[in-house]
Amino acid sequence: MSATKWVIDPTHSEIGFKVKHMMFTNVSGKFSKFDATIESENNDFENATIEFTGAVDSITTGNADRDTHLLSVDFFDAAQFPELKFSATSFTKVNEGEYELVGDLTLHGVTKSVKLSAEYSGLLTDPWGNAKIAFSLDGKINRKDWGLNWNSVLETGGVLVGEEVRLLIELQFIKQ
Fold first, then answer.
1. Which residues contact 64 (CB under 8 A, 6 or more apart)?
2. What is the CATH number for 78?
């Protein structure tokens, strides 16, 4: 059987994250420029090949000053590391519609394995005749594992930026 290729529909996908600010609230952000593909031998997507790239300079949190700081050497160092990459090493069906996605995330010049939960939303045909699939992914990473170490100690004893980053990803793909 030949592999089916799926390409991301960027207008119906979002690569988002949340991180604690001042230890008591979350700040959300997203990357607006990205590409992803899935290649699968079968319709249950078990062991599918999944590749993702994102442009670091497309980060947005709704605050221009914060976004500029995130692109600086204090955080992402976008001039030296302009892209983040994810390559799946396994995509395993856990239950009907539920998967565990494991892969290598390269960010800030560092590659580490990450594990994400994936919920398969199904297959449908859009009004223009395109076959589409959708996945919701979530997981947590520690930003310091990728060398994103900047922080500021608060007067109250906490820190300005949390270490744990929650990934919230909505993906829609079009069959090729």
1. none
2. 2.40.128.110
> Dihedral through CA 164, CA 32, CA 107, CA 163, nearest 10?
-10
- What is the pLDDT, as a whole number, of residue 1? 63
**Residue in 67, 71, 82 with CA at minimum distance from that of residue 27:** 67
The Cα–Cα gap between 34 and 39 comes to: 17
The structure tokens listed for 166 are 């929650």
Closest CA to 108 of 36, 54, 38: 54
pLDDT of residue 155: 85
pLDDT digit string, tens, across residues 48-82: 999 999 999 999 999 999 999 999 999 999 999 99
- The number of folded domains in the chain is 1
Q: Are 38 and 45 in contact (CB under 8 A)?
A: yes
Residue 135 sits at the vertex; the CA angle it makes with 12 and 15, to the nearest 5 degrees, is 55
Tokens of 32: 């607006």
SS3 per residue for 46-74: CCCEEEEEEEHHHEECCCHHHHHHHHCCC
**Strands 49-55, 14-21: parallel, antiparallel or unpaired by DSSP?**
unpaired
Helix (H) or strand (E) holding 141: strand 131-142
Structural domain including 114 reads: 4-175
